[in-house]
Design goal:
The chain is mainly α. Helices cover 75% and strands 2% of the residues. The strands form two sheets. A two-stranded antiparallel sheet has the order 1-4. The two termini are 14 Å apart. Residues 1-11 have low confidence and may be disordered.
């Protein structure tokens, strides 16, 4: 087989994959527009916030190979900042979201600058240590409200025109933020920058030998991931009109890892599937009390044993096998 034939086949496969992705995005948008008329909107908003959080985390784990145990720091602290800006300063919700996202990004830059100097479990432990520092800061800082958190955060008027007090209106705003965030992540992943991140993940030493400043790429990915986590946390604070220690606790960092692994690491839609699965379990099995954690653990073990690549990862592998069989 000639080189031109091979390249043509790869190009055709790439075009098909891009086509399937666009179809999946279109279907997801259609489902998202209809969903609040079928499912409780507040549950959907919570799931979308965590889906965005998990998607940002997946940018770091799935495409750079860096496992962070401290992403709740950016998610939760951004929620506090957004709540304080909107409630105490009296600024509109879009400004609160921007402030929260900016603080999450800034924290990511500071922590990431130190954390990327280590690899593997040492990197994970450094991020966890910094996250615990942020947790105690949130507990002791006067503007966070301590154990009570910031309550009664007003949703306000978006751009001074759109009232966010109605759950349906708030849902479509959250859905828009999620879609924009997901498209941004998709663009980053499929850009030359994203391809370089994948090269670093696969063989860091080779990337260094090719002249890439690996630490600079890692730091930028860390900052982008933290900013998306901050955007998700700020949005969640407006949805539930509260910012508490739960969002900045290490449990939240563990949950986002679980969501990403269940859905599929290194896939665009995997974290979204994992977030909806975990949030759904927590919501619909809440009446069983502490047993919900056992149910979560059982599902996680089953997925690890049966779906090594995650739900979406296994589905993509199945499609690839069928495509190769018929090519």
């Amino acid at each position: 087989m000639s080189v031109n034939t091979v390249s043509g086949t790869r190009s055709a496969r790439g075009q098909k994959a891009a086509g399937f992705t666009m179809i999946a995005v279109a279907v997801a948008i259609m489902v998202g527009l209809i969903a609040p008329h079928v499912v409780y909107p507040v549950f959907l908003m919570k799931a979308l916030c965590f889906a965005l959080f998990a998607s940002g985390f997946n940018l770091l784990l799935g495409y750079v190979g860096l496992l962070s145990f401290g992403h709740a720091a950016y998610f939760g602290f951004a929620a506090y900042v957004c709540g304080h800006v909107v409630k105490v300063w009296g600024l509109p919700p879009e400004v609160g979201i921007l402030f929260g996202t900016a603080i999450g990004t800034a924290l990511g830059f500071v922590i990431g600058s130190l954390a990327i100097r280590r690899q593997g479990i040492y990197f994970a432990m450094v991020t966890l240590a910094f996250a615990q520092m942020i947790f105690f800061l949130a507990l002791q800082a006067p503007f966070t409200g301590g154990e009570d958190g910031i309550q009664g955060i007003p949703r306000g008027m978006l751009f001074g025109v759109i009232s966010l007090h109605d759950d349906m209106t708030m849902y479509y705003v959250v859905f828009t933020i999620f879609v924009v965030g997901l498209l941004f992540i998709h663009r980053v992943v499929h850009s030359p920058f994203g391809q370089t991140l994948k090269a670093i993940r696969e063989n860091e030493q080779r990337a260094i030998s090719l002249g890439y400043d690996v630490n600079r790429y890692k730091l930028l990915a860390f900052v982008l991931s933290s900013g998306i986590a901050g955007l998700a946390g700020s949005t969640k604070a407006l949805v539930f009109q509260i910012a508490t220690l739960t969002d900045v606790h290490w449990h939240a960092s563990g949950e986002v890892v679980l969501m990403t692994l269940l859905g599929g690491v290194g896939t665009v839609f995997g974290p979204m599937v994992g977030a909806f699965l975990v949030t759904g379990i927590q919501n619909y099995f809440a009446q069983v009390g502490a047993w919900v954690t056992i149910i979560q653990g059982a599902i996680f073990v089953a997925c690890v044993l049966l779906f090594r690549r995650g739900i979406v990862g296994e589905y993509q592998a199945f499609i690839d096998r069928r495509r190769n069989r018929h090519s």
